[in-house]
Amino acid sequence: MADADPGLNWAARRRQQARAIQRRSAAHAAAGTTDMAPGPFVNRAGTYTDPVRFAAEQRHLFGGDVPLVAGLSNDMPNPGDRLLFEETGVPIVILRGKDGVARAFLNMCTHRGAKLATDCTSSARLTCPFHAWTFDLAGALVGLPGARGFAGHAKADLGLVPVACTEWHGIIFVQPRAGATPVMIEDHLGSFLPELAQLELGKAEPVKAGEMRAASNWKFALDTYGEGYHFATLHASTIGQTHFNDMCVYDKFGPHHRVGFPDKTALALASLPESEWPEVDYGGVHYLFPNTILFIGSIEPGKGFTQIFRLFPGKTPGEMVTKFAVYAPTGVQSDQHRAECEFAFDATARVVSTEDYVIAANGWTNMAAADPMTPIIFGANEIALANVHRAIADRIGMALD
After folding, report:
1. Which residue ranges in the chain fall short of pLDDT 70?
2. pTM surpassing 0.85?
3. What are the structural domains, with CATH classification, of the chain?
4. Could you read off the pLDDT of 332-345 as tens digits, one per residue?
5. How far apart are CA 100 and CA 253, in angstroms?
């Protein structure tokens, strides 16, 4: 399993980053300001509703050109463990080999196309439920009943069809298309690389997972993760109680970003020398292009959780699904810690599904009925949203009108 370079002190880097974000948060809290773009950005309803643009997104973002997060290393830590990745419409199975390497294949028997794995039960072999062809964890055909019927076809040529798969610093990426040219993850991440590496996701232990659906375009739902302008209104009884409305600390890393939303304790720091500031855990919302949100949060100092949201389009522009999971960053410390992580999952799922995604579905209904050129205005304070849409448009080769 690939993991962070042991020669680097990621904990020290996280502390430095946390203090830098804390410093910027205190300055914003004292001044009542926020990180902003140079000016507002005008999008169009057709960015969400246009079927041609939607098809281009499916092809270029979810069709194998771009690495997508399939899970974390500890979702399948041991030889024989497996993950299923089917959210893009291409059934893929990821297997942990005896050598510890994660490999991905089409979840399809090379005999007559039957699906091999229907769950994530660990095993040393995959056996087809149709005719009992059997494959090992490296995808090789090792069991061929009635071999005489396949004379002239060597078993070595009948192995599973591989799919590009990379495990990097605790994250498992796949490119969901057979024959896709593997992308160098370092090139994909660019300047975002150290920001993700310092999270040390190879240590994260899975606690709970599920999914959330909405009758909305996937990008309209994605927009809800990138700004705190709605906290006081939409989340008045939850995060709006603890965090400033319309205030963020934003950092762009190519098509990726990190955004922090200052909580109301930041205001008190402005009147104190930094030597008297409490040390806080590193955190924030990390956007990994094109569809993944990693939220690093704390239950209390020294005891945190990691939440991962992976948003996928459905079969039409107005359907989407979010695969949501929560992890204990360095492993579950106690039964209480597990319960707290589970509570964080349940509370977040409730807020997102009953507030953010309800707004997304209602907004989608309006978008779908509107003229495609209807302006959708992002304020300068919604800096992350404009940059996400620009990055997506650039990747699919379709300019924003």
Report:
1. 1-7
2. yes
3. 10-65+191-396 (3.90.380.10), 67-182 (2.102.10.10)
4. 999 999 999 999 99
5. 31
